[in-house]
Design goal:
The protein is α/β, with parallel strands linked by helices. Helices cover 34% and strands 25% of the residues. It is built from eleven helices and 15 strands. Helix 1 (38-48) crosses helix 9 and helix 10 packs across helix 11. The longest helix is centred in the middle third of the chain and has 16 residues, at 145-160.
């Protein structure tokens, strides 16, 4: 694979409404609005890095859907199979962290165009023709039975056509509200398709029911004991043997504006670690995980076989996301490599 190979991502695009200056939801009438969503964030990261990327979703008809479609095209994404025939757009409201107070997210996604998906809306054989990678996440499985079934339809087709399948756990416990929802079982089934998998240490703990290994770094020179992680990854691989590359992100939030970030990669039986970034005075933490995914997929295509470089590149990409407002990582390849070289 190489950077000229097409990547397809699939998920829900949202309107994000954020408070200014660390204010709480009841304070002031002003909200900043922009678009975001995990799989779109990944797609835009990849397009910014020069990859050929198509994003597939369902939007509402009318001016809001048109605005969203124009935004996707502005960031150089292919959109020939985006549907604009739904009734409403999903949204989320973000209240930023401050000091020792955590951030807060309120979702408004029920009844959205993507929520109301069912199998048959997309011609996946046509969409995935000549593509190399298909990427999605567990969010669709959390929204509704129809959206979950539509995602499995895409995964089945990607598997049948021999694509590399990339999957981000993206467990959002506040989304699994529909009757009969089984998050661990649904995510586990989605993961069974994956060749490359992403998640943070808390999501790994949820999926595997293995107690998480604490990451307690407060400085960049923190020394990690890798052996417990190695054993954990080997247990995970035994359960999902298809997946060849497992990426685990770890973040210690010292305060709202001070994070320590690192990651691990288990690939074909070998464990790779990378540096720890000490991030202070950050701008916006939303989308950091998606930037990590985008960085890894770009490096997977641009530098196949160099697992250490892939991990180093992905973490540097995620670190730079902290410097951008909004959900999208707009770091260039040159900026990422410059950070890696520091």
């Amino acid at each position: 694979m190489n950077c000229n190979k097409r990547i397809v991502t699939f998920g829900e695009l949202l309107l994000r409404f954020s408070k200014f200056d660390h204010r709480r939801f009841p304070q002031t009438e002003v909200l900043r609005g922009n678009f975001g969503g995990s799989e779109a964030n990944v797609a835009i990261s990849l397009a910014t890095l020069g990859n050929d990327v198509e994003y597939v979703t369902r939007l509402p008809k009318g001016q809001i859907g048109l605005a969203a479609l124009m935004m996707l095209r502005e960031y150089n994404l292919r959109t020939p199979h985006v549907l604009c025939d739904g009734d409403r757009m999903g949204a989320y409201y973000f209240e930023g962290a401050a000091g020792l107070r955590n951030s807060s997210v309120v979702y408004d996604r029920n009844g959205s165009a993507f929520y109301n998906l069912t199998p048959g809306y997309f011609n996946w054989h046509e969409i995935l023709k000549d593509a190399a990678v298909f990427h999605t996440s567990g969010i669709a499985g959390a929204l509704s039975p129809g959206a979950a079934a539509a995602t499995f339809e895409a995964l089945d087709t990607a598997d049948e056509m021999g694509l590399t399948i990339s999957f981000d756990i993206n467990h959002r416990k506040n989304l699994w509200k529909y009757e009969g929802a089984q998050p661990r079982e649904t995510l586990s089934r989605m993961l069974s398709y994956a060749d490359v998998m992403f998640g943070d240490v808390i999501e790994f703990e949820f999926l595997t029911q293995h107690p998480k290994i604490p990451f307690t770094a407060t400085t960049a020179d923190y020394e990690m004991d890798l052996e417990p992680y190695r054993e954990w990854f080997e247990e995970i691989h035994a359960r999902w043997p298809r997946c060849r590359k497992w990426l685990m992100g770890m973040r210690n939030q010292v305060s709202a504006s001070h994070h320590l970030l690192t990651a691990l990669l288990w690939s074909d039986g070998r464990l790779y670690s990378t540096r720890i970034y000490d991030i202070q005075d950050m701008i916006d933490p939303m989308g950091v995980g998606d930037a990590f995914v985008g960085g890894e997929l770009h490096a997977l295509l641009a530098h196949p076989g160099d697992d250490q470089l892939m991990l180093d590149y992905a973490l540097a990409a995620a670190t730079l996301k902290y410097t951008f407002n909004g959900d999208f990582n707009l770091a260039t390849d040159e900026e990422i490599k410059a950070l890696m070289a520091r």
